[in-house]
Amino acid sequence: MFTSFSTALSALHADSTAIDVVGNNLANLNTTGFKTSDVSFQDLVSQSMGSGQTQLGFGVGTPITQMQFSQGALQATGGALDAAIQGDGFFVVANAAGATEYTRAGNFQVDANGNLTTATGQFVQGWMPVNGVLNPSGPTGNITVPVGSLQTPAPTTNMSVSMNLNAAAATGNTFSTSVQVYDSLGNSHVVSLTFTKSSTANQWQYSMSFPNSDLSSAGTPVTGTLTFNSSGVLTSPAAGSTPPVLAVSNLADGAANMNINWNLFDGTTPTITQFSQPSATSAQSQDGSPAANLTQVSLVNGGKILAQFSNGSQVVVGQLAMASILNPESLVSAGNNNYGLSAYSAPPAIGIPGTGGRGTVVGGSLESSNADIAREFTNLIVFQRSYEANAKVVTTVDQLSQDTINLRPQ
Fold it and tell me: How far apart are the first and last CA of the chain?
């Protein structure tokens, strides 16, 4: 009889723990990246009685909880620094003490020092470019966003023009176009290109010049000849040869001297043709840029962090790291939506999202909690009924004990 009492008490304790777990799951229905816990029950050793064919159990042991890392729904937020993981893996963060933790919550923000942090202040780990080169095989560190920075100007060193010269043009016919370039101070200048149809078939004379008004002393135009074959394909200068170079010195604004390569080929494909169509420019490009203010920092698909500047340029300023852990259910909750390693956790493998079995990162989205309200309410009812049933066992045993006591002789 007293075994029944302790057995029922063990069930009350187990059901109480299970209800606590369900309560925590329900409390975190709206927690970003939250993973629910399931409860596992196991019975205690049985006692053999009589000939051994009768066994009495001692009840149920303390339940074991295990986190379920099933995928939560992805919700588009439009947040510039929001990120969600689609698939396996964790973002890597460092707490104030420098300890490494892992999280699925990607609602990131920037602190006063420009560090990318979680909503609760942990430092997001990843890689930043060194001399413009991103090295994901190196050690991870804090990601610092260039808040309020000014992008220095980049002088033009290469330019290209995609165009057609009219094969039906008469001798002496001219066509002009221009390309805007930038010096080391970020000031813009216009390079003029003039083409004159030669008396020799399939030939054009060109002249490339810098505006004398932008120079302290007049410059010298670069001239040469373009030769096309009978199919209108540029043959001279030939692919692989040294392109025409416009050397510019004595800029009136005090900028550094410039050497601008005019690239006539995109690889081995000429950018200039000669067909019987009106001479026209279809595209042009150059690699210079003026000084520009930072306008926005955003986290995009793949975990890259892009800095966007007022001149339209975009620069990768960081790359999120992702950890792959073979047995994530062994992790322990560290609070603040983070998890820590336990003695049973496999060593995490750090790498770029989308590689080595790691999931992908979706920018502008967050992963919702994987708690299912219908399932949790069902479990809550089951555990409640179990608790009530075992409470009834306790009261029944108590009544039987009183009846037994009342059997004593009067």
Answer: 23
The amino acid occupying position 399 is: Q
Q: How many CB atoms are located within 10 Å of the residue 345 CB?
A: 18
* CATH code, 158-290: 2.60.98.20
pLDDT value at position 50? 59
The token pair that represents 209 in the structure block: 């010049």
- Would the pLDDT of 343 be above 90? yes
Strand 338-340 vs strand 100-103: parallel, antiparallel, or unpaired? antiparallel
Structural contact between residues 106 and 73, judged by C-beta atoms closer than 8 angstroms: no
Helix (H) or strand (E) holding 400: helix 373-405
When pLDDT is cut at 50, 70 and 90, the band that residue 5 belongs to is confident
Cα–Cα distance between 124 and 109 in angstroms, integer? 10
319, 324, 323, 322: which is closest to 303 by C-alpha?
319
Torsion region of 292: left, alpha or beta (phi above 0 gives left; psi -120 to 50 gives alpha)? beta
Judge contact between 260 and 245, C-beta under 8 A: yes
Can you give the residue ranges of every domain in the chain? Answer: 2-69+370-405, 74-150+294-367, 158-290
